[in-house]
Structure formats: structure tokens, C-alpha cells
């Protein structure tokens, strides 16, 4: 077995310096070497100036989270060094334009100025220097750089940066396996496309907007219409209109935007129209902290909407899960004619993962009307699921409605009918539970303390479990609540510790509500995700 | 049991509008238009979308496809239906509370994007089903249950708003002129783009305006230049939806051709998508 290797690099600069692009290119470069990579992106809510940084962790074993301590800082401005030098490991290096005792001072701006190319290409020069520093051949580097727009100029800048510095360290390479690079939101978008999405309708809101951007740019390739309407209310209602005609639709937003969609969530339930919501959380309440992360909307999404109705809430923790669960969310929405949710957050949505894709992808399918007898949109069936027909069908009159209704979709106020229809809709929840209960990730030894997490905390929690020999438990579905599966998973654990990035321990409360024991809760609610090193320090005294 | 009622296009749902309700006139005009569509073998392509209020019950009374949506949200639902299946004939029904209060942003945007719909506002200038409060088109000083000392607000003029919002078909009609109303609805359905009709419709119980409309309503003469925005605005300003009037023009104020949203914005081809090849190409 190869010796464990990892390298953590922080790239910093001002907004507009192309920091995230620099980090992404570096991640691509190392992924091509067969290494596993993870990118964390940290930026304030502004367009120019401010301070941005990305941390790229690369290793010869799977990594799904970053560390606070880094081995190398690539500083495109001096602010980066001031802010982050204390995160640099003892033997670490700094590549920057300033004087430093711990690395190299490199004239990147001068290089760009002399060549007369746009200022932003400084990031390509820096990438060239970093590649040489790490002993990566120029041939390897150019494979990545030549895919950029203005490839020739970028290659020239990469070469100039490459020549500024001697090779100082060397990186291993692994035989390349089939792994790909996805931002969480790209995985969500692709999962939806793969399942059969036809309309994505969204109003911009960080950190969900990159789903909108990614799909809009590729709509012809994907065969998906991408629409940006006047507000979130129009987005969700247009999506319901689309689904009523048989055309699968998804909407995406953050907590504030979802608040505006809640009225239509209840409509989807009453009218039994399939729809998938992507809720990318950020710290609230209200505008909160737009570009940072928090798992603060679990209770909101579990309970949103007036009236009682079944729903599915899925919480992926990495790109692979995001892809699979989004496809599943669409599939379940259509098979059960219910609203389904993907609960993401900034940390999942805007981090870069290096993973492969699932072999089997859930597809949209639904119970079709057999064209016998007169069509009843809300016919009573054994499983509560009425067959679907769509307007335009010569034999069917399709009446969808927000009112309580009879099987034809005509308004009713009759006591017996009201009760039967309520029961018809709620009946689906039991069937759903049977199908979704297995959505639980568990790893590691059983009779030890267990760390329980959900969503984007997965990466850090999983790694801490591995390092400390603990049990890892991650429910992927939070409604219908997988009580029996969790009971079974938690039973052998000597202690149950719930880890989540919110202030009140929403998963812990949910477990307790379902009579599952929780011994300790580790919370972080400063807008930052758990990192392996910080979380480990919090777990150690508790075990 | 069958959905169909005793008369053509009707359902078994008992009608619960008040005796004398203006909605009856509107229902009969819509029926007339739908019967023509049936003759043309197009009825199965029709989808009615309604909001919430007395107007909205119309979808329960017609045995055609319908989406009984929520208050103020008729237009985004109708838009979603039309985008997803442009071969459907989508007719939105809304009350004045729906269209000009709760959902006015959607109205302005539907006009702006010229989505190919027909939109009928059952404008009785009062909230009926919630038992008599002032609406965006009630006259100033209107005494409703929420404004017992008179509404302090000026009414909106929806015709002016639609003209300013780039609607391509702007009309007004009156339930007291059933032939006129049916004609306008037919023209609106024929119009490729967003066709807006403000239908004056008395509420017999809470705001009986029959006499007022009968006295002042005048059909727009055929000589009116429909493509002329200035002329349309001049006509629109002859009545401000206030308590008094000298003349209330009904007919088509404005009509022009402009590409529809569906023509402009939807993707043209639906290629088969090879996920594995795409990911290998773009995500490694």
C-alpha cells in the first residue's frame, strides 16, 4: 500500500481575481493525476474587492472535506497572507508577490503587465508557478490550461509563471480511475436532467443560483427549458402548471425564496401535482449571511405548508449523493404525485467533489391512465395514487384543483368526501416509508460511540469517525422519518453524538421527538462548515 | 356517475352564484366560445385556469380541462401550462382582487413577455366571496366592510396598466352585452400573444352597478385605430374606474403583433442526451 499523502493549498485574493477558477484548475490538474480532491470556496457577498479564498485538499485517498491547516498559501494579494498565515503548517510555503521568509516572492503582476494581457490572467501565471513548484510537467499543466478561453494567451502566461520558480517538492500520481469533478449544484442539476427533468424554473438566490446558471448555459444539450421569472412565487406556480401537462419541473432557491413558495407547496399537495424543490440553505433568519453556510432550515422544510400531507425530504452530503438523490426526488415526486425536497446548503452546493456517478439512476415514471371508463383525476385507489392523464387527451377531462374535491376534481364540502380525500393523500406516506427507509449510510465498528450527521456535515464527520474509530451514521431521508432503520443503527452504539451546523440541533431534536436517544450534540453556527481538524478536537473529549 | 351535467359542457356541480350575479353572463359567453371550439374539434386542447373567488367557480361548472389554482396566481400557472405544451389553448379567469391585487406582478409580466394566453378578469370592483371589501378597482370612498368610512385610495385603471406593460391585446367588455363579450373572447383566443380582457361584471349583492354600466357603456367604433398606442391611451383615460363617468368605452383598445414568449424563449430541439459522454467530456 502506498504511503498516505495529502496536500492542502489555500488560494487567496480579491473578488475579481479569479480565485475560485484558480482553485478549480488546480483541482482538475491533480484529479488528472488520479488524486482525490476537494475544494472549499469562501467569499463575501460583493462583486469586486473584499477577500476570497479557496482551499483545495488533494490526497491519494478519498477526501470530501477540507482542513483549517494548510501546507501552502498561494496569495494573489497581501491581505491573504495577513489573514491566513496562522493557518500555515510549520514547514509550509507561501507563494506571493510580497517578501516572505517562508517561500517565494514572484512578480506575477509585472509578468501580466509586460505581456499586455487582461489583469485576471495573473491567476494563470500563479498556477504556472505553483505547478512548477510542485514538480508538475508543463505538458500536464497545458492539458488543463488549453481548455480555457483565450487558450493561447493563457498558455503563454502559464509558461511565464512556470519559469519563475524552481521545482521544490514533488507530488505522487495514482493510476487514473473513473472519477469526475462536480460542484454540488452541478451534481444536483445533472441528477435532475438524468432523471428526465423538462423545466427548471428559478429566481436567482445564493447559494442556489449556480444550478440556474449551469442549466441555462446547457439547455439545448440537456433538452431542458430554463426559465427565470419575476419572483419565486411565479417560479413554483409555473412549475406546477408545467407538471399538470405532464412535463416534469423543478424549482431551486434558498430559505427566503422558499418562504415565498410555501403557499404553492400546499397547492401541490392538495392538487397532487408532482414537483421537486431544491432548498440550498444559508445562515438566516431573513437575509442572514448570503454566501456562507448553515443547516438551519431542516425544521422549516419538514413542516412548511398549511394542511397535512406527505412529502419527501432528502439531504445529500456529497456530489454523488446529490446526483442520486435529486434523480430519486424527481422519481418519487412523479410516482407518488407529491412534493419532494433536496435539502442542500452552501457548503454542499458550492464545494467541488471528486467522485464517480451511480450506475443506476432513478427515472421519472408514473401511473398511467388506462383509458377505460370516464377519467377521474382523483379516483380512489388501493394505494392512494390516482392514474395520471394530461390535458390534450381527447378522452379525458383533467381537472386539477386547490380546493378539497371529489374524484372528478369538483369542489366538495361534504364531510364524508373530505375525510376520504384526506385519508387518500396521507395513505401514500406508508408506502413511501417502505421505499425510503433504507436511505441510511453507516460505516465503521458498531459497539463504539456513533457520530450522527446529515447533509453537508457528512465529509468532516465521516473522516473524524475514520480517524477515531467511531461509528458513522447519516440518514439521507428525513421525511418520512426512517425511525426503524435509525433505531437499528443506533442500538449498538455506546454513545450517540449528533453533529450539525446550526444553533439548536435540529436533527438531534428530531431524533428525540421520535424517542431515539441523543447523548451529546456538537454544533457550529458561525456560517462555516465543520473541518476535520476542528471537529476532531470537539469530538475527542466526548468519547 | 359522469362529470357531464344536463346541458352541453356543463357538469353536475350545482351553481352557487347569487341570483342576478354577473358571472352568469360571463359563463354563457364562455360556453358559446367553447361550443365553437368543440365544433372545431379543439375542446380537448382547452385548459381553463382560475384563481380564488366567485369568478373561479366557473371551472367547476364547465366539463373541460381546468386548473383551479390559488388567489392571485392564475397567470404563472397558465404560463407554465402554455410553455410546457404550446398546443393547448389556455384561458385564464381571475377576479379583480386576484388580477389587480394579490397577483398584479404576474399580470404586468405576462403582458411584458407576451405569453400566448387569454386572460379574462371578472371585474366586479368588490370582493364578493369574502363578503364585500374594496378592491384595487373600487372607486375612491367606496364603503366596504374593511373601509366602513370609505376607501382612501384611488382606483387603478387596468387598461392603462396593460398598455404601459406592453400587452399586445387590450380589451374591455361588459356582461350586459353578451354578444359583444363572446366576440371579444373569440378575438382574444385568436390573438397570438397575451390577450387581456377586463370584463365589467356587477356584483348583485355587494356592488350592483348594472344601471351605471347600462347608462355609460359605449362600444368602441370600428374607426378606432387599434395599433395606435396614443389613441388607445386616450380611450382608456375616458373613464378612471371612479364613481362617475361620462362614457365607458368597451371593445378592443389596442392590438399589435409581437413574437410570443413561447416562440422566443423555449428550446427548439430535444436531443437525446448521453450523460456518460457528457460527463467524461466536461467534468474530468
Model description:
- The complex is a heterodimer of chains A (543) and B (284).
- Chain A is 37% helix and 20% strand.
- Chain A is built from 19 helices and 21 strands.
- Chain A is α/β, with parallel strands linked by helices and 543 residues long.
- An eight-stranded mixed β-sheet of chain A has the order 6-5-4-1-3-2-14-7, with helices on both faces. Chain A has a seven-stranded mixed β-sheet with strand order 9-8-10-11-13-12-19, with helices on both faces. Chain A has a five-stranded mixed β-sheet with strand order 16-18-17-20-21, sandwiched between helices.
- Chain A starts with 5 loop residues before the first strand and ends with a helix.
- Chain A folds into four domains: 6-162, Pyruvate-ferredoxin oxidoreductase, PFOR, domain III (Pyruvate-ferredoxin Oxidoreductase, domain 3, 3-Layer(aba) Sandwich), CATH 3.40.920; 180-355, Rossmann fold; 367-436, no CATH class; 440-542, Rossmann fold (3-Layer(aba) Sandwich), CATH 3.40.50.920.
- Chain A has helices at 19-32, 78-84, 108-115, 122-133, 138-145, 151-162, 184-195, 209-217, 219-222, 232-244, 255-271, 298-303, 319-336, 346-349, 415-436, 458-468, 483-490, 506-513, 532-539; strands at 6-15, 36-42, 49-59, 70-75, 88-96, 103-105, 180-183, 199-201, 225-227, 249-253, 275-281, 312-314, 339-345, 352-355, 399-401, 440-443, 449-452, 471-475, 477-479, 495-500, 520-523.
- Chain B is α/β, with parallel strands linked by helices and 284 residues long.
- Chain B has a single domain (23-282), classed as Thiamin diphosphate (ThDP)-binding fold, Pyr/PP domains (Rossmann fold), CATH 3.40.50.970.
- Chain B is built from ten helices and eight strands.
- Chain B has helices spanning 23-39, 74-84, 96-102, 104-113, 158-164, 178-190, 210-216, 229-236, 261-265, 275-282; strands at 46-50, 65-68, 89-95, 118-123, 169-174, 195-200, 217-219, 248-255.
- In chain B, strands 2-1-3-4-6-5-8-7 form an eight-stranded mixed β-sheet, with helices on both faces.
- In chain B, β5 (169-174), α6 and β6 (195-200) form a beta-alpha-beta unit.
- In chain B, α1 crosses α6 and α3 (96-102) crosses α4 (104-113).
- The radius of gyration of chain B is 20 Å and the shape is globular.
- Chains A and B meet through α1, β7, α7, α9 and α10 of A and β1, β2, α2, α4 and α10 of B.
Amino acid at each position: 500500500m502506498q504511503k498516505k499523502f495529502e496536500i492542502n493549498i489555500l488560494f487567496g485574493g480579491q473578488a475579481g481575481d479569479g480565485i475560485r477558477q484558480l482553485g478549480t484548475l488546480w483541482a482538475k490538474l491533480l484529479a488528472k493525476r488520479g488524486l482525490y480532491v476537494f475544494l472549499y470556496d469562501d467569499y463575501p457577498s460583493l462583486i469586486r474587492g473584499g477577500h476570497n479564498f479557496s482551499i483545495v485538499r488533494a490526497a491519494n485517498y478519498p477526501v470530501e472535506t477540507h482542513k483549517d491547516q494548510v501546507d501552502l498559501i498561494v496569495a494573489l494579494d497581501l491581505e491573504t497572507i495577513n489573514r491566513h498565515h496562522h493557518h500555515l503548517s510549520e514547514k509550509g510555503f507561501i507563494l506571493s508577490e510580497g517578501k516572505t521568509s517562508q517561500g517565494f516572492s514572484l512578480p506575477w503582476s509585472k509578468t501580466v503587465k509586460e505581456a499586455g494581457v487582461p489583469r485576471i490572467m495573473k491567476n494563470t501565471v500563479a498556477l504556472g508557478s505553483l505547478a512548477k513548484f510542485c514538480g508538475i510537467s508543463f505538458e500536464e499543466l497545458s492539458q488543463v490550461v488549453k481548455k480555457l478561453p483565450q487558450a493561447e494567451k493563457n498558455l503563454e502566461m502559464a509558461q511565464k509563471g512556470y519559469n519563475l520558480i524552481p521545482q521544490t517538492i514533488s507530488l505522487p500520481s495514482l493510476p487514473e480511475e473513473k472519477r469526475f469533478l462536480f460542484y454540488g449544484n452541478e451534481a444536483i442539476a445533472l441528477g435532475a436532467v438524468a432523471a428526465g427533468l423538462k423545466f427548471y424554473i428559478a429566481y436567482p438566490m445564493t447559494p442556489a443560483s449556480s444550478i440556474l446558471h449551469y442549466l441555462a448555459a446547457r439547455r439545448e444539450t440537456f433538452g431542458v427549458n430554463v426559465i427565470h421569472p419575476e419572483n419565486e412565487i411565479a417560479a413554483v406556480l409555473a412549475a406546477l402548471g408545467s407538471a399538470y401537462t405532464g412535463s416534469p419541473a423543478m424549482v431551486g432557491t434558498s430559505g427566503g425564496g422558499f418562504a415565498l413558495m410555501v403557499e404553492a407547496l400546499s397547492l401541490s399537495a392538495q392538487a397532487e401535482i408532482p414537483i421537486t424543490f431544491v432548498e440550498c440553505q444559508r445562515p438566516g433568519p431573513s437575509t442572514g449571511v448570503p454566501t456562507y453556510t448553515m443547516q438551519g432550515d431542516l425544521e422549516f422544510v419538514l413542516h412548511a405548508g398549511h394542511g397535512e400531507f406527505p412529502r419527501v425530504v432528502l439531504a445529500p452530503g456529497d456530489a454523488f449523493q446529490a446526483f442520486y438523490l435529486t434523480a430519486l426526488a424527481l422519481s418519487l415526486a412523479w410516482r407518488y404525485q407529491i412534493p419532494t425536497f433536496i435539502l442542500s446548503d452552501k457548503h454542499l452546493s458550492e464545494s467541488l467533489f471528486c467522485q464517480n456517478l451511480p450506475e443506476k439512476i432513478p427515472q421519472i415514471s408514473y401511473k398511467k391512465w388506462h383509458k377505460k371508463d370516464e377519467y377521474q383525476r382523483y379516483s380512489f385507489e388501493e394505494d392512494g395514487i390516482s392514474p395520471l392523464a394530461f390535458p390534450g387527451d381527447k378522452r379525458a377531462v383533467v381537472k386539477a384543483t386547490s380546493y378539497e374535491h371529489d374524484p372528478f376534481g369538483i369542489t366538495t364540502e361534504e364531510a364524508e368526501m373530505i375525510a376520504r380525500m384526506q385519508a387518500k393523500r396521507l395513505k401514500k406516506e406508508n408506502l413511501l416509508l417502505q421505499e425510503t427507509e433504507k436511505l441510511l449510510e453507516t460505516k465503521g465498528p458498531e459497539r463504539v460511540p456513533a457520530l450522527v450527521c446529515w447533509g453537508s456535515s457528512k465529509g468532516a464527520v465521516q473522516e473524524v469517525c475514520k480517524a477515531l474509530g467511531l461509528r458513522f451514521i447519516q440518514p439521507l431521508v428525513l421525511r418520512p422519518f426512517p425511525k426503524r432503520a435509525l433505531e437499528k443503527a443506533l442500538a449498538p452504539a455506546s454513545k450517540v453524538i449528533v453533529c450539525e451546523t446550526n444553533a439548536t440541533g435540529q436533527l438531534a431534536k428530531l431524533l428525540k421527538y421520535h424517542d431515539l436517544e441523543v447523548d451529546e450534540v456538537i454544533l457550529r453556527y458561525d456560517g462555516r462548515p465543520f473541518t476535520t481538524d476542528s471537529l476532531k478536537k470537539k469530538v475527542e473529549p466526548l468519547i | 356517475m359522469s362529470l357531464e351535467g344536463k346541458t352541453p359542457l356543463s357538469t353536475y356541480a350545482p351553481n352557487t352564484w347569487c341570483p342576478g350575479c354577473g358571472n352568469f353572463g360571463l359563463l354563457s359567453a364562455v360556453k358559446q366560445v367553447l361550443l365553437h371550439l368543440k365544433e372545431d374539434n379543439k375542446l380537448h386542447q382547452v385548459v381553463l385556469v382560475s384563481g380564488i373567488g366567485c369568478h373561479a367557480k366557473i371551472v367547476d361548472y364547465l366539463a373541460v380541462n381546468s386548473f383551479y389554482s390559488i388567489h392571485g396566481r392564475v397567470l404563472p400557472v397558465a404560463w407554465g401550462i402554455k410553455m410546457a405544451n404550446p398546443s393547448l389553448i389556455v384561458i385564464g379567469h381571475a377576479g379583480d382582487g386576484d388580477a389587480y391585487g394579490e397577483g398584479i406582478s404576474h399580470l404586468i409580466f405576462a403582458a411584458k413577455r407576451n405569453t400566448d394566453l387569454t386572460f379574462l378578469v371578472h371585474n366586479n370592483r368588490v370582493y364578493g366571496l369574502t363578503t364585500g371589501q374594496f378592491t384595487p378597482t373600487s372607486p375612491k370612498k367606496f364603503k366596504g366592510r374593511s373601509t366602513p368610512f370609505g376607501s382612501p385610495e384611488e382606483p387603478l385603471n387596468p387598461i392603462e396598466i396593460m398598455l404601459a406593460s406592453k400587452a399586445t391585446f387590450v380589451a374591455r367588455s361588459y356582461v350586459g352585452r353578451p354578444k359583444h363579450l363572446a366576440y371579444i373572447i373569440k378575438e382574444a383566443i385568436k390573438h397570438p400573444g397575451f390577450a387581456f380582457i377586463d370584463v365589467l361584471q356587477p356584483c348583485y349583492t355587494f356592488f350592483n352597478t348594472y344601471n351605471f354600466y347600462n347608462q355609460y357603456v359605449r362600444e368602441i367604433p370600428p374607426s378606432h385605430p387599434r395599433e395606435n398606442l396614443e389613441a388607445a391611451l386616450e380611450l382608456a383615460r375616458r373613464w378612471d374606474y371612479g364613481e362617475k363617468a361620462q362614457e365607458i368605452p368597451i371593445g378592443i383598445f389596442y392590438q399589435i403583433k409581437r413574437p410570443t414568449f413561447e416562440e422566443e424563449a423555449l428550446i427548439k430541439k430535444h436531443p437525446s442526451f448521453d450523460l456518460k459522454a457528457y460527463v467524461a467530456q466536461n467534468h474530468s
